[in-house]
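Anyone opening a protein record will find just a pair of labelled lines. A complete record is shown below as an example:
=====
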Amino acid sequence: MTLPKKSVIYNLGVLFWELTSCSSTFNFETTDDTSSIQIEILNGKREKPISTTNDVFVKLYQKCWEHVPDDRPDIDLIISELYNIDHFNSKELEEVKLIKN
């Protein structure tokens, strides 16, 4: 069974959030009431961003888990955004090194 591309994009957004939070969404592993969580997600509930996460990255994964599948970005845009985030972080790191020296 192949998932629709926009479902895969949603899952990618969830994975990005999990990477920044170091936990699973809505604590699925520790709850017995997964059906109510699923209903909340279908009604638009999403996890809150982790405060220390890069704002651009937060916006990216929030776009990925948009409720309307057609509002989610395609993979090419995601890759481009990730490249831009990496480039920005690398540039920022170089500036910090210059300040220290």
